[in-house]
Amino acid sequence: MTQDQLTGATPPPPHTSARRLALCLSGTKRGARLARHLTVQQFTEWTGLPYDSDPARAVALVAAELASNAVRHGSLPGRDVRLALHLLPDGHLRIEVTDTRPEHLPAPATSEPGDGTSGRGLLLVQAYADRWGHTVHDAYTKTVWAEVRTGLTRVRERDIHLL
Q1: 26/16 Cα distance (integer angstroms)
Q2: Less Cβ around it within 10 Å: N or C end of the chain?
Q3: What is the pLDDT of residues 118-134, one digit of tens each?
Q4: DSSP state for residue 154 in the 8-state scheme
């Protein structure tokens, strides 16, 4: 069940990427940190936006939260997580992190996570992403995804137009 299904929103149509990247990373803190760095590096390469631009910072924050949640809540010892990036034709960057714990679904983001030192990550994802959710593929994997607005008007395979 996706976050869109939980909230009653219309699910997105199947996406066609203008550009995409997928790779496996270790299910460790180091793997989560690498996911953030690689996501921002690829994003800036695809778009030509500076590393310290607002869209790049939003992409970094969302990638960091999705990857760290996958490592903390969705990873089994010795298993990798999969990071996939899709630069969509509508100008959004779709970040997908797949892990090996489909029974641990992300809880809907609430505005009152309590007094603990954790539990606020999905609130940040919700704030910076236009859409986010999760998909259970089979008995072994789930993907948590988010689509972040990049500031691009449209994207084609060989042509990127900035606002």
Answers
A1: 27
A2: C
A3: 667 888 999 999 999 99
A4: E
